[in-house]
Amino acid sequence: MCITGGAGFIGSNLADRLHADGVEVVIVDDFRTGRREFVEELLSDPGVSLHEGDVLDRRLLERALDGCDWVLHMQANADVRHGLEHPRRDLEQNTVATAAVLEAMRAARVSKIAFASSGSVYGEPEVFPTPEDAPFPIQTSLYGASKLACEGLIGAYAHGFGFTGLAFRFVSVLGERYTHGHVHDFYRALKRDPTRLRVLGDGRQEKSYLYVGDCIEAMLLAAAQHANRPGELAVYNLGTDETIIVDDSIRVICEHLGVHPELEHSGGRRGWAGDSPLIYLDCTRIRALGWAPTLSIREAILRTLRWLDANPSAVEEEAAVS
Amino acid sequence: MCITGGAGFIGSNLADRLHADGVEVVIVDDFRTGRREFVEELLSDPGVSLHEGDVLDRRLLERALDGCDWVLHMQANADVRHGLEHPRRDLEQNTVATAAVLEAMRAARVSKIAFASSGSVYGEPEVFPTPEDAPFPIQTSLYGASKLACEGLIGAYAHGFGFTGLAFRFVSVLGERYTHGHVHDFYRALKRDPTRLRVLGDGRQEKSYLYVGDCIEAMLLAAAQHANRPGELAVYNLGTDETIIVDDSIRVICEHLGVHPELEHSGGRRGWAGDSPLIYLDCTRIRALGWAPTLSIREAILRTLRWLDANPSAVEEEAAVS
User: A134, B138: Cβ pair inside 8 Å?
Assistant: First the structure.
């Protein structure tokens, strides 16, 4: 299996899991956000190879795909919040990049793709929990729009070229190697200044989180189910059956760190333009395959915090990048 | 108002209509599919200007936008059927081009956009007539996927940058200056050989058509309604409350031409991969604004045939291109 973004947060966890199962793993990563330390150990093993570069490098990608049956397409710009500051970034790194992956797959005669989509494609839904066939949404973020565009491309390749397609609409994913997002930002800020914490929005935004290990099990289960269904794009929500408000997730972090900051809310229902005040996905479809998350949101946050404690460089390096 | 693709089928009809209303019209067209003869007369009038080039030419577009309040973004690759032969074309000419239009608008401080989307974004819907908030569809064509991606971008610009957005999901549009699609193809084929006609699919595909004049009235009505609603993308289906099967539309053409060809169906429910066996849109939303089509599907086909009769060059030139 070829994993694009295989040195990233979810991608490298996928790589570990597949390798442990004896699956041959080909990692494509340009290390723009992926990290060498996430795959260094793995790469010393036979059965794991790395093609260093961008998926837009057609030759590199075709070489990487040679002999693969699946592409687990995880590479993406995952910076949801700053889309408006760089309006072309999501288009180029997500939409155009996915089109390039699909064309390289066609050339290399690889026709199975599992895609890391996002619950943000629902924009601000009106139905909760939100099912995969919710009313046709209006997009509210460039990130969500780009992920939706990718799903559309994969659907068209499935229908037109007989590809087998899977799209996973994730809630926010947490766990080992988590290096961006709410929990990371709050942790970093509290490490710097435990007396006060700036919170975007009113802190009442209701979010969903999923543990990366649970996320991966769901993806692999669905991939096994759909391996022999060419011509279809199947879509699965991946999340837990609970939500947590931002202020409560901050509380978990503060308890863990033993700090008591004053919270300074920027106000408003949304943390930023495109931030959804409520994310809560209906995961009946993936649960019907026999999957269930093993960790609650609180447990997933704590697992993440313990990993950040043990890997202070993940926090520092991120600071150096941004 | 700036009309991209203003020398094309729908764009040039829009230009005529707006000019007749005394509105200043700026046409952007690269004449790849637009035609000089559609705008020649108009361009001799004051109050109408042409910027010849592609919307990807940022400078040209910004110059064109100077002083405009609305962009009517009609420029597109409208070749639905051959998407799979040129998998990057819809992405580049529709999705990336629309991203470029939005960025040029932001630079030029123009924030109102009406976009020619398509009923093909519904893929193969399960609800008929299909409303704008139908269950979240799976894409079945690269054309539909690209139009959906454009809608997503406009939604994100509306939400993030306060743009006023309108997306019109058209059924197939017919009328004066119609130069591609079913009716055109059948007319051309029967002019060449009136004894036999090859029909893609089983001829039972059920299609909807809308007269271009009715289409334009609907667009302008919605634009007037939404002119003062920044931050929103509003979506409207545009069609008639009827459908016609492909074989029946062929019958109308044959009667008009006085020919009796033998029909040779290629078979299958779809004419090509991505062809929807049934297109029938719920137009309650646009009708609630007071709009209704003035021509039936049959009348729209006949109006189109009469225009093709009077403009044989439209058929010949198209043949030279394809």
Answer: no
Query: B83 contacts in A (CB within 8 Å)?
Result: 156, 160
Question: C-alpha distances in angstroms, A301 versus A74, A172, A194, B59, B221?
Answer: 22, 11, 18, 49, 51
CB A70 within 8 A of CB A87: no
Output phi, psi for B24, to 5 deg. Answer: -70, 130
Asked if A121 contacts A140 with a C-beta cutoff of 8 angstroms, the reply is no
CATH topology of domain B182-207+241-321: UDP-galactose 4-epimerase; domain 1 (3.90.25)
Q: In CATH, what is the architecture of A182-207+241-279+294-321? A: Alpha-Beta Complex (3.90)
- Pairwise CB contact (< 8 Å): B149 & A123: no
Residues with Cβ < 8 Å from B167, sequence gap 6 or more?
B114, B115, B117, B150, B151, B154, B233, B234, B235, B236
- Superfamily of chain region B2-174+210-238: NAD(P)-binding Rossmann-like Domain (3.40.50.720)
Q: Does A224 lie at the interface with B, CB-CB under 8 angstroms?
A: no
Domain extent listing, chain A:
2-173+210-238, 182-207+241-279+294-321
- Residue A101 touches partner B, C-beta closer than 8 Å: no
A137: which chain B residues are within 8 Å (Cβ-Cβ)? 136
| Out of A95, A133, A160, closest to residue B84 by CB | A160
Q: Is B56 on the interface with A (CB under 8 A)?
A: no
Tokens of B262: 């033998």
All residues of chain A having their beta carbon less than 8 Å from the beta carbon of residue B149 are 95, 145, 148-149, 152
Decide whether B2-174+210-238 matches B182-207+241-321 in CATH topology.
no
Q: What is the pLDDT of residues B106-156, one digit of tens each?
A: 999 999 999 999 999 999 999 999 999 999 999 999 999 999 999 999 999
CATH number for region A2-173+210-238: 3.40.50.720
Which string of b and e fits B91-130 if b means at least 16 CB within 10 Å? bebbbbbbbbbbbbbeebebbbbbbbbbbbbbbbbeeebb
Structure tokens at A105: 């797959």
Cβ-Cβ contacts under 8 Å between A and B: the total is: 131
Tell me whether 0.85 is exceeded by the ipTM.
Answer: yes
Closest partner residue to A152 (CB to CB) among B88, B132, B145 is: B145
Å between B94 CA and nearest CA of chain A: 12
Cross-chain CB nearest to A156 (options B95, B132, B142): B142
Q: What is the pLDDT of residues B196-219, one digit of tens each?
A: 999 999 999 999 999 999 999 999
**Ranges of chain A with pLDDT below 70:** 317-322
